[in-house]
TrEMBL record:
It catalyses: L-proline + a quinone = (S)-1-pyrroline-5-carboxylate + a quinol + H(+). Keywords: FAD, Flavoprotein, Nucleotide-binding, Oxidoreductase, Proline metabolism. Its cofactor is FAD. The keyword Flavoprotein applies. Signal peptide: none annotated. This is proline dehydrogenase. PANTHER family: PROLINE DEHYDROGENASE 1, MITOCHONDRIAL, PROLINE OXIDASE. Its EC number is 1.5.5.2. GO terms for molecular function: oxidoreductase activity. It comes from Kibdelosporangium banguiense. Residues 43-295 form the Proline dehydrogenase domain. Coiled coil: none annotated. Pathway: Amino-acid degradation; L-proline degradation into L-glutamate; L-glutamate from L-proline: step 1/2.
Length: 303
């Protein structure tokens, strides 16, 4: 119920206005977001890399309704990749892109605009030795996102995809994607979805996660296990023993566990969001965990 309300608020312009304009939000947002500007993302990357963790960086923004905003997002990724390269941090880095931030949601030829823009980002990543992963948004975008993935992979076979364990379709998508060279991030899923397309019960989502993870680990692709859930992490360790895969977690969430995983020699990649459009991302983090919401409310109350 709380999750549903917070996810509804994540898409409400009214709630956005209230939360964004409240100056007291910022200290809590800073726990989950690396900063507003490119140098903030570069500096977060440097400290993560120095502690043995890799990064995937997200320039925050989604549901773009203007072609110019989509273009701005492409330029932001391009500057970021150049800055990482200048600082010797680009090789091995990944950028995470939401296709709705580069035009997918535009009426008419949104799909084509998003493909062209994602291609520009893939070219910029390729030029500095970085990779690109296409984030997955709500289920109305899944087909378009997987089509764009397959078109990009013709020229950039290392472009990665995200699958969401809460969707019924994901088991079949995982079988399609578990092939050589295919980078697949598996997460539980962060959007509000109807029961016509998605499991609603947390234990069913978790069971499907493990089913899909097994498919990915038995396939020939490169699984990326995106979860903070200790049970999932333990199961991934068992299923992935002796094969190449990586763990992924979000910036600011379970940093101690991130370091433990990296220290024991397993690959750990941290998803680093930055930029001023933090609202949707932030609300999804609150929806995931009541303790995050309590932390936010406590911070507001004590200031
Ligand atoms: P949950 O069921 O939320 O949590 C399980 C357990 O993890 C908790 O019970 C607790 O033990 C532990 N835990 C969780 N949070 C905390 C915390 N703050 N502190 C301490 N312990 C905690 N979703 C999408 O829909 N599309 C995407 O493209 C996408 N990309 C992602 C990329 C990465 C790298 C990650 C990590 C997540 C991504 N997500 C994405 C979000 C994902 O779908 C989930 O909403 C989110 O990760 C929460 O699920 P969970 O697996 O961590 O488990």
């Amino acid at each position: 119920m709380l999750r549903t309300s917070l996810l509804a608020a994540a898409r409400s312009p009214w709630a956005r206005n209230v939360v964004e304009r409240n100056p007291l939000s910022q200290p809590v947002v800073n726990r989950f977001v690396a900063g507003a500007l490119t140098p903030d993302a570069v500096s977060a990357t440097r400290s993560l890399v120095e502690s043995g963790r890799a990064v995937t960086i997200d320039y925050l923004g989604e549901d773009t309704t203007e072609v110019a905003d989509a273009k701005h997002t492409v330029e932001a990724y391009s500057s970021l990749l150049s800055a990482l390269s200048e600082q010797g941090l680009a090789a091995g880095a990944d950028v995470s892109v939401k296709l709705s931030a580069v035009g997918q949601a535009l009426p008419g030829d949104g799909h084509k605009i998003a493909l062209d823009n994602a291609r520009l980002i893939a070219e910029a990543a390729s030029a500095v030795g970085a990779t690109l992963t296409l984030d997955m948004e709500d289920h109305t975008t899944t087909d378009s996102t997987l089509e764009i993935l397959s078109e990009l992979r013709v020229d950039f076979p290392w472009v990665g995809a995200v699958l969401q364990a809460y969707l019924y379709r994901t088991e079949a998508d995982a079988r399609d994607l578990a092939s050589a060279g295919s980078r697949v991030r598996l997460c539980k899923g962060a959007y509000r979805e109807p029961d016509s397309v998605a499991y609603q019960d947390k234990s069913e989502v978790d069971r499907n996660y493990v089913r899909v993870l097994r498919i990915l680990m038995q396939g020939d692709g490169y699984p990326m296990v995106a979860s903070h859930d200790p049970r999932i992490i333990a199961i991934a360790g068992e299923l992935g023993a002796g094969r190449d895969f990586e763990y992924q977690m979000l910036y600011g969430i379970r940093p101690g566990e991130q370091e433990t995983i990296a220290r024991r020699g397993d690959k750990m990649r941290v998803y680093v969001p930055y930029g001023v459009q933090w609202y949707g991302y932030f609300m999804r983090r609150l929806a995931e965990r009541p303790a995050n919401l309590a932390f936010f409310l406590r911070a507001l109350a004590t200031r």
